[in-house]
Amino acid sequence: MDNNKNQYQHRRVVVIGAGSVGATYSYALAQSGLADEIIVIDKNKDLEQGQVLDLVHGQPFFPSVNIRSGSTSDYGDANLIVITAGVAQKPGETRLDLVRKNAEIIGSISEEVAASNCRGVMLIVTNPVDVLTYIALKRSGWERGRIIGSGTVLDSARFRHLISSYCGIDVHNVHAYILGEHGDSEFAAWSMTHIAGIKIDEHCALCGKCSDWKKQQSLIEQRVRDSAYHIINYKGATHYAVGLALVRISSAILRGESSVLTVSTLLDGEFGIKDICLSVPSVVSDKGVNKIVSSPLSDSERASLSGSADILRKSVDSVLLT
Ligand SMILES: NC(=O)c1ccc[n+]([C@@H]2O[C@H](COP(=O)([O-])OP(=O)(O)OC[C@H]3O[C@@H](n4cnc5c(N)ncnc54)[C@H](O)[C@@H]3O)[C@@H](O)[C@H]2O)c1
């Protein structure tokens, strides 16, 4: 019996930022049954209270979970801290102004989390996610791996959906990754794309449905890149699919799954890139990223990854050096 005594681990998730993304994630996480406790924090206390009340009224329908408001004193015992806090661009404000403001918000939150002696994982969601993951690492002093960004997990899901719908194959049988920056320089790693274990080009030759696969590939890649712009134009924010992508990452962390996910992580010489956070296939488990998969990318994919790294380096420098 004693051996079983400590097998139950109370899984506490703190969500900082209760806007569209934070609230949708909290809702999806509550439904997943992965967490025992979900603590919601927002600097807008009315919004925080409203979101918590709305969520707790769902408790009879959720798997057992405690949902409540919180404060910095809740960081210490958290297994996972998910940061969606930030400000949106205002009219007349440049992107750089926005980066600086969000860098200050994420920088100070990550310092507070580090000061709490939390032994969990920080997951950054606020954009620009790769730059802010880097800032959080530098400001917290945490070891790489324990701070990750949601990166291109969402973009890879969009990519899989588009291939699935074009090829008429269940999305669960499509393995495909978007790598690099979560942003305009991201790219599709076609060399790693498989349907039912068959390389996509071979599958295409066997299928014979279309005569212009190369053109379709570039259209699919462009649609992935433009997805967020389209959704934001239609309804002002993206939140459902990102909420689910965050639950997928949370599952890998809370259950120690060693799942391969394209989270944003600090590279230290992998793929010839050093000291920048971006998305590559990474093994995610209870301590965050514990390994980066050395995927054999094609020469042009390697060049695209380096291109993303250069763009992110400039963005990081613009925040740190000005
Ligand atoms: N990484 C991804 O894949 C992805 C996808 C979608 C959105 N996002 C990003 O997620 C972020 C949140 O998006 P949203 O639509 O939920 O925005 P939102 O404006 O609805 O919510 C942001 C919330 O953060 C709160 N906040 C600001 N500063 C805070 C602080 N210091 N402490 C606590 N709370 C604070 C605000 O009060 C607000 O409620 C944005 O940066 C957005 O670009 C990322």
Describe this structure in words.
The protein has 322 residues and is an alpha/beta fold. Helices cover 45% and strands 18% of the residues. It has 10 helices and 16 strands. The strands form 5 sheets. The chain has a 6-stranded parallel β-sheet, sandwiched between helices. The chain has a 3-stranded antiparallel β-sheet with strand order 7-10-11. A hairpin with a 5-residue loop joins strand 13 (264-268) and strand 14. Helix 2 (20-32) crosses helix 9, helix 4 (95-115) packs parallel to helix 5 (129-140) and helix 5 packs across helix 10 (299-320). The chain is globular. It binds nicotinamide-adenine-dinucleotide. Nicotinamide-adenine-dinucleotide (NAD) binds next to helix 2.
Low-pLDDT windows of residues: 1-5
Order of helices and strands: HEHEHEEHEHEHEEEEEHHHEEEEEH
Discrete helix count = 10
Gyration radius (Cα, Å) is 20 Å
- The share of residues in extended strands comes to 15-25%
Class based on secondary structure composition and strand pairing:
alpha/beta
